[in-house]
């Protein structure tokens, strides 16, 4: 028999074995966003910016925010530079993806219940494939998508635009198509959604997982 291939796991740095009965207003979350060279993450496209911020006690901890450009070791397409404002010159001396990802997981610091994002599947895949290129496996960290919370609160919504949702829910809007700007916008939107969910009886970590993960 052939031995099973060995997998090296990259730590998510999230809180482990968090009781489902834990009140939402005692939880910590790590909200993040990425900008990339394109959408074909499994092949040629790479992360070019990563931004993140902490939420604690249903409040955004603004001083915890961090942003870094990321060297993709490839050219940034012109249309991406036009969209994000990120040019090849800005990423040429930037940290590589591994350094940026380590900063993200350091922010979680084993205190955050999960990662949070707006259409977070894309950002999770961006990190997953950066790690995979280094033979590392990110073992399905818990993640909550603001889209799922919006779907619970207002099922009639059928768009994904972050700025539209932030405007409709009366929360702050930061620079669009910037990883740190979108992370901050998402964080304030998420806090507002948490308060609405709390008022509707979503009071525990288990309750939040049920609607946030789209189960």
From TrEMBL:
SUPFAM superfamilies: Ribonuclease H-like. CDD domains: DEDDh. This is DNA polymerase-3 subunit epsilon. GO terms for molecular function: DNA-directed DNA polymerase activity. Its EC number is 2.7.7.7. InterPro entries: DnaQ, Ribonucl_H, RNaseH-like_sf, RNaseH_sf. It is an enzyme of class 2 (transferase). Keywords: Exonuclease, Hydrolase, Nuclease, Nucleotidyltransferase, Transferase. Signal peptide: none annotated. The lineage of its organism: Bacteria, Bacillati, Bacillota, Bacilli, Bacillales. Residues 28-199 form the Exonuclease domain. It comes from the Bacteria.
């Amino acid at each position: 028999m052939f031995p099973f291939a060995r997998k090296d796991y990259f730590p998510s740095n999230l809180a482990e074995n968090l009781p489902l009965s834990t009140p939402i207003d005692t939880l910590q979350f790590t909200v993040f966003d990425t900008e990339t060279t394109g959408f074909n993450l499994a092949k040629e496209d790479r992360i070019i910016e990563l931004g993140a911020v902490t939420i604690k006690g249903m409040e955004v901890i603004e001083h915890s925010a961090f942003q870094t450009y990321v060297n993709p070791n490839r050219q940034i397409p012109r249309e991406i530079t036009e969209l994000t404002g990120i040019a090849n010159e800005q990423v040429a001396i930037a940290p590589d993806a591994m350094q940026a990802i380590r900063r993200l997981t350091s922010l979680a610091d084993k205190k955050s219940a999960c990662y949070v994002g707006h259409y977070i599947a894309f950002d999770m895949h961006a990190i997953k494939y950066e790690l995979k290129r280094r033979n590392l496996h990110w073992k399905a960290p818990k993640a909550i998508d603001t889209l799922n919370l919006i779907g619970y609160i207002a099922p009639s919504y059928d768009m994904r635009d972050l700025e539209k949702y932030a405007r409709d829910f009366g929360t702050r809007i930061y620079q669009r198509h910037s990883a740190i700007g979108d992370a901050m916008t998402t964080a304030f939107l998420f806090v507002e959604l948490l308060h609405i969910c709390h008022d509707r009886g979503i009071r525990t970590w288990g309750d939040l997982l049920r609607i946030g993960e789209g189960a």
